[in-house]
Design goal:
- Helix content is 56%, strand content 5%.
- By secondary structure, the chain is mainly alpha-helical.
- It folds into 3 domains: 8-58, no CATH class; 83-163, no CATH class; 172-349, Hypothetical protein af1432, CATH 1.10.3210.
- The strands form 2 sheets. A 3-stranded antiparallel beta sheet has the order 3-4-5, covered by helices on one side. A two-stranded antiparallel sheet has the order 1-2.
- Helix 5 (113-130) packs across helix 7.
- It is globular, with a radius of gyration of 20 Å.
- The termini are far apart.
Length: 356
């Protein structure tokens, strides 16, 4: 069945969209922005826009897997998940213009001062993780060049999520994003040592977003997130892991919630999969470490360096050590390196701008 959609043409590859089937074939990353417009990616990677009110055939459900779709339909609060701020997706299109320059991009980002601050902080975190002795960024233009246009697209969405106010609860967004960046930095360090063929920007972003499901709980279920935080870090004994607390309240695992959010917010499928699998590690095999496995180990190492032994899954760490053939003392040395890294990352993100 066709609609009254105007013919749309991709500005990069000149692909033409004239029917619903055209839109559903070889496209990806469907997401609604805060202005109500529908955005998606052509198979050439370009970001395209369908204006608000011209997509009665679209439902977020069709972008989700079976299990996630069931959770999305069962928990009505998830329908209230914030949409990606329009400015982030507009910047995607700016980044794809052939003659756009770093100063052009920086000027566009500066129109949203909080977003600009978040991007600069993220760039500093990446610099700290990769080249801690390098000079700090003095300009947003320098940060844009350092990050690169491709990685900047997903970093912009990540940064924009931090500009969305949260309901009152026991959830601390600044601490959450500090730990998220640290997880990304640890994941990238693990990648360089044990799986250097992976894409470092993808690994960093997947690590930084792996606990996105916890942010979903804070957005949509503030009373519950307060209870969970008390269970994992309060004074009541015994302390439990986040997943154990979720199970005790018969609430879906944050891996599933993260998959839902990452899909609705249009992150790449590789990152969505890593979020879904960040508590999973395959039994011993000769296959190289995947992004999801690297992120799973980084997530456990985060608890190690932040002295949270009760939140660690030791079986996962043991599988990792066996797969990469390191012993306990080598594992401890690795944790020591990440402890030093954590001091640098946490210091650089101590003053993250807050959503108002």
């Amino acid at each position: 069945m066709t609609t009254d959609l105007d013919i749309k043409e991709c500005g990069s590859c000149r692909r033409r969209f004239t029917t619903e089937q055209d839109f559903f074939s070889n496209t990806s990353r469907w997401r609604l922005c805060s202005s109500g417009h529908l955005w998606f990616n052509c198979n050439c990677g370009s970001t395209l826009l369908i204006k608000r009110g011209r997509f009665p055939w679209f439902s977020p459900e069709f972008t989700l897997g079976t299990e996630s779709r069931g959770v999305f339909n069962r928990l009505s609060n998830l329908k209230d998940l914030p949409r990606v701020p329009n400015i982030a997706l507009e910047l995607h299109q700016t980044l794809q213009q052939p003659q756009v320059s770093p100063p052009d991009i920086a000027r566009s980002i500066r129109k949203e001062p909080v977003l600009a601050s978040q991007v600069l902080h993220m760039a500093e975190t990446i610099r700290n993780a990769r080249s801690p002795s390098a000079v700090k960024f003095k300009t947003l233009e320098h940060a844009v060049v350092y990050i690169g246009y491709k990685a900047l697209q997903d970093l912009l969405v990540t940064a924009s999520l931090q500009t969305i106010p949260l309901p009152d609860s026991g959830f601390q967004p600044t601490a959450f994003w500090q730990e998220s960046y640290l997880t990304g930095a640890i994941a990238e360090a693990l990648m360089r040592r044990f799986s250097p063929d992976l894409v470092q920007d993808e690994v960093f972003l997947a690590g930084s977003l792996c606990n996105l499901g916890k942010l979903v709980t804070a957005f949509c279920f503030p009373p519950l997130v307060t209870k969970i935080i008390n269970d994992v870090s309060g004074s009541k004994e015994p302390l439990v892991t986040w997943r154990q607390a979720e199970a005790a309240y018969q609430f879906p695992d944050h891996c599933i919630l993260g998959e839902i959010a990452a899909t609705l917010w249009g992150f790449p499928v590789e990152i969505v999969q890593a979020i879904r699998e960040h508590h999973t590690f395959q039994p011993l095999s000769k296959a190289p470490l995947t992004v999801g496995e690297i992120v799973a180990v980084a997530n456990q190492m985060l608890h190690w360096v932040l002295l949270r032994p009760h939140r660690m899954e030791y079986g996962l760490i043991e599988l990792f050590a066996a797969k990469v053939a390191i012993n306990e003392s080598e594992l401890a040395r690795l944790a020591g390196e990440f402890t030093k890294l954590s001091a640098s990352i946490l210091a650089s993100t101590a003053h993250l701008p807050r959503a108002s």
